[in-house]
Write a sequence for this structure.
């Protein structure tokens, strides 16, 4: 095939040929027409050459795109559309699970009506959200969702948020609203995922094991040290829906940050809907997007408003001592105080029957619908407290989708 320079040279040659045929008055009309025909043929040849060049260049570009999207196409095909691939700013692939939009009433009447807040971002309703199929690991100094990687741990919340946002538009740490959208799907469908809750294995089914990050350890070895497993290395029963295409390791293994929920001196505060997923949302301690929950009807109000939902404790410096919901904070055990204790999530709030839990607290996993979702809730009601969920390899029965 001719190069661009050769094509241009042919154009100039053809133009000169046509000009000469017109200017030479001694040539016969037949000769002039013959030369014009030759010129036109040369021009047609030039157009053909240019078209062939453009077509090959387009094919080359299409091939480049095809190579990048091949993994995505394959992932979507084998998962029946339940998984897809999204690439970050480093061009690293992230395996994502597609969660279709659903309404609260489709889960349970006690939750209210309308679209689950996880699907409302910046006032816009999304038809789906994408959740990392695997806990974040560190690749190219970015959090990625990939199988058989060491989970990225020992990272504070602010750094985790910044690292996720650095991956590109739309990337963010899985929010509390998103976590609970998945947890409520599990609740509705009677999915009860297990996980690494006993040093590399399930505490309820010890034949279920994952691949420990260290080759020197074996599942069940409770010696001092980390016993987390590689992402997605456990059986399908460790995925949220019990299939090989579900979201892995939500129960146990490592605690996971879930921004968009916190308590400040015991007052429960949230970011409205799923706005915590926005890159512009200020999730900092003094961020203006935080709202408190009015205990009477669940409406969102400014922090510090009277009669908002708060976390109190049944006692201080005595046992038993459990967290409870209230509109006031009376007992504030010190962080070093062993009596702050914890409460089974399924029992949380039952210690004070006079308190009526607003529906939004059930929607966001602050309070249980019933006793199906497993896990314990640990609380302090002093200072700013940000949530981690799911439990870790050492938590046993205390881990679960509701662990907080």
């Amino acid at each position: 095939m001719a190069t661009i320079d050769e094509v241009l040279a042919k154009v100039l040659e053809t133009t000169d040929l046509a000009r000469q045929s017109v200017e030479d008055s001694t040539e016969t009309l037949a000769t002039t027409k013959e030369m014009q025909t030759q010129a036109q043929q040369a021009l047609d040849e030039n157009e053909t050459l240019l078209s062939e060049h453009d077509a090959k260049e387009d094919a080359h570009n299409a091939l480049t795109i095809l190579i990048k999207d091949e993994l995505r196409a394959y992932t979507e095909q084998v998962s029946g559309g339940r998984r897809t691939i999204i690439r970050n700013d480093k061009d690293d692939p992230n395996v994502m699970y597609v969660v279709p939009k659903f309404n609260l009433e489709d889960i349970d009447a006690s939750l209210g009506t309308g679209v689950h807040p996880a699907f409302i971002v910046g006032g816009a309703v999304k038809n789906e959200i994408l959740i990392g199929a695997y806990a974040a690991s560190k690749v190219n100094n970015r959090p990625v969702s990939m199988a058989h990687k060491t989970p990225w741990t020992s990272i504070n919340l602010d750094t985790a948020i910044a690292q996720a946002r650095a991956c590109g538009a739309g990337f963010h740490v899985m929010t509390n609203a998103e976590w609970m959208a998945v947890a409520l799907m599990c609740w509705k469908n009677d999915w009860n995922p297990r996980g690494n809750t006993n040093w590399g294995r399930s505490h309820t089914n010890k034949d279920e094991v994952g691949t420990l990050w260290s080759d020197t350890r074996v599942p069940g070895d409770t010696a001092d040290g980390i016993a987390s497993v590689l992402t997605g290395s456990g059986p399908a029963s460790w995925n949220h829906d019990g299939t090989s295409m579900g979201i892995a390791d939500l129960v146990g293994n490592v605690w996971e940050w879930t921004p968009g929920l916190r308590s400040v001196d015991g007052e429960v505060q949230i970011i409205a809907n799923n706005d915590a997923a926005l890159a512009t949302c200020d999730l900092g301690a003094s961020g203006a997007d935080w709202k408190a929950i009015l205990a009477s009807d669940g409406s969102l109000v400014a922090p510090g408003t009277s009669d908002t939902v708060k976390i109190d404790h049944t006692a201080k410096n005595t046992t038993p001592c459990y967290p409870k919901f209230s509109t006031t904070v009376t007992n504030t055990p010190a962080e070093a105080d062993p009596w702050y204790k914890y409460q089974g999530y399924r029992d949380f709030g039952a210690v004070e029957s006079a308190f009526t839990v607003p529906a939004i607290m059930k929607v966001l996993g602050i309070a249980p619908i019933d006793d199906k979702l497993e896990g314990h809730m640990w609380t302090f009601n002093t200072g700013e407290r940000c949530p981690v969920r799911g439990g870790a390899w050492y938590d046993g029965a205390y881990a679960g989708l509701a662990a907080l």
The radius of gyration is 31 Å. The chain has six helices and 18 strands. The first strand starts at residue 83 and ends at 87.
